[in-house]
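agent: user wants the structure for Transcription termination/antitermination protein NusG from Rubrivivax gelatinosus. delegating to structure tool.
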Amino acid sequence: MTEQPQATPTPEATAPASTKRWYVVHAYSGMEKAVERNLRERIDRAGMQDKFGRILVPTEEVVELKNGKKAVTERRFFPGYVLVEMDMADDTWHLVKHTSKVTGFVGGARNRPAPISEAEVMKIVNQMQEGVDKPRPKVEWTVGEMVRVKEGPFTDFNGAVEEVNYEKSKVKVSVTIFGRATGVELDFSQVEKV
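agent: tool returned. relaying tokens verbatim.
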């Protein structure tokens, strides 16, 4: 019986697969960016860069009207949460858990959090990218929804949304004037949800 020559493994084949997984970290609401910054500083100081991957604060861009002008701002779509890619071990767990403005991990046992799937992370990343490509309006209106006019000649009138035009940032609202329903076109900034 002759022995078959064995292929020599390439460096890629012998490199261990990444053991980093994604974990959800709970932070004080409004402090997500500070937590991201604090984590990065602590990782660098501790020399643990090889045990951590990416750190994400899930945000999207939204368009809002400020003083009659469209302004693009950032909105967190999971307020109070930061995604951290890391190797879970006692030292990394302690580093994250004892970072300023972090209240703990989400999911799993108290001292052994459960990771989230790569598919869930990709869904969040895609949602973030969609927000950059096509910012959404800060407030979304639906036809039939009741609103109150907060400025202009119809101030304090309530009405139902008949049409929504996101391109022009306008809504058509049906208000009752002297017992008759009248359609009035208003800027997003002139109405609020009831």
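agent: one observation worth passing along. Residues 24 and 93 are 12 Å apart (CA to CA).
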